[in-house]
Amino acid sequence: MYRKLLSLFIILSIGMIVLGCEKHEKTKINVSVAVSLKNPFQEIEKLYEQENKDIDLVLNFGSSGSLKQQIVQGAPCNIFISASKKYMDELKKDNYLIDNKYNEFTKNRLVLASSTKDIKSIDDLKNNEYKKIGIGDLKSVPVGQYANEVIINKGIKNDIENKLVYGKDAKEVLAWVVSGNVDAGFLYSSDTINKKNLHIYNIANDLHSPIVYPVGIIKSENNLDQIKKFNKYLLSNDVKDILKNYGYES
After folding, report:
1. Which of 47, 92, 231, 239 lies 20 to 30 Å from 38 when distance is taken between CA atoms?
2. Residues 120-140: pLDDT tens digits?
């Protein structure tokens, strides 16, 4: 009799532990984010998880083109934030987005930056003192694509093509600029916030396409209510204030 009661007690205890674990299991939301948004998004993640204890935001940072390709190949992703409408439009065209639509998340500006030279004009890049110029990979990195538009529109492509050094994403180009491994680099304005000793030249907006970051919900069968709730939070004034502190524009 004693053994039966002990066995029953053990079984009930194990059941309660299992139920307890299930009760506290968090809902995962996979978010693929353009790497240029890494700093503000880590703050957004922290604040949202503090206010929503049942949510675990799983962030995946990378170049927008690479992230889009991962989604197409079946990588887990519930929300995608790109640094270019190009990749979101491609997903929309191929019917990857909930309701076949997306929203504008934030905006940015393009700059030329150097840790060694005082840039007065984009035409300065033609000078012999500029031997290496950092730019994002043209196939998958939006900041490189915007920069390429500037180079073409200014008519200096042939003059500087041999000087261009291509980075895998915006953060790699930033690291080159800060370290002086390139004489100048095309960056987002937000990348230069709180970076001391950088010479910044602001590029006119009419030299390139508008730098818009769209956010879209990728089709999924699970946790759609929680995913939509987080997407709504991303469009809130609280998040806009965070982004503004990091140099982004509404």
Report:
1. 92
2. 999 999 999 999 999 999 999
- Residue whose token pair is 């439009």: 89
Write the DSSP assignment of 194-231 as a string of letters. T-TT-EEEEPPGGGS---EEEEEEBP-SS-HHHHHHHH
215 φ, ψ (degrees, to nearest 5)? -125, 135
**137: three-class secondary structure by DSSP:** coil
- CA separation for the pair 81, 58 (Å, rounded): 13
The proportion of the chain whose per-residue pLDDT surpasses 90, expressed as a percent, equals 86
Identify the pLDDT of residue 196. 86
Residue type at position 94? D
Which strands, in side-by-side order, build the sheet including 79-81?
A: 55-62, 27-34, 79-81, 212-217, 103-107
Question: Three-state SS across 26-71?
Answer: CEEEEEEEEHHHHHHHHHHHHHHHHHCCCEEEEEEEECHHHHHHHH
- The SS3 assignment for 240 reads helix
Q: Is the pLDDT of residue 92 over 60?
A: yes
pLDDT of residue 221: 80
Backbone angles phi, psi at 76, to 5 degrees: -65, 125
Name the strand (E) or helix (H) holding 114. strand 110-114
